[in-house]
């Protein structure tokens, strides 16, 4: 099942609320709370795998732009000193 960004975020939020409610009602170590926690972990992992790639790529591009900008500042100085 392929979910879009907002659907997956909503599902994560709903699962988080179920887990919190279960923990408040039955305790942190109840079977239901642990099951909700594990299901939440899977949803968060799915989110990171599906949508995290885009974020990492954008971060890599920002880093490359930063490096390139500083290289442009350094190269002319290096050429003058040759």
TrEMBL record:
This is Aspartyl-phosphate phosphatase Spo0E family protein. InterPro entries: HLH_DNA-bd_sf, Spo0E-like, Spo0E-like_phosphatase, Spo0E-like_sf. SUPFAM superfamilies: BAS1536-like. It holds the Pfam family SpoOE-like. The lineage of its organism: Bacteria, Bacillati, Bacillota, Bacilli, Bacillales.
